[in-house]
Specification:
The chain contains one helix and no strands. About 0% of the residues are buried.
Length: about 60
Amino acid sequence: MSALSIDDQITLVEILLIFAGLGITWAAFYGSDRAELPGEAAIPAAGSADDMEIDTRGRTL
């Protein structure tokens, strides 16, 4: 037999799921203040050549 009743087990699972949701939310938004937002990228000069190598540092999906 379990040391916890069914109601206690359900309450424990609810609390753990709330903390898991908070952890997932934190992980998703951690460091998002350093993300490059639309409109903040530098506009290159019209006569300059395109970069031959794509810079993917700091890029996320």
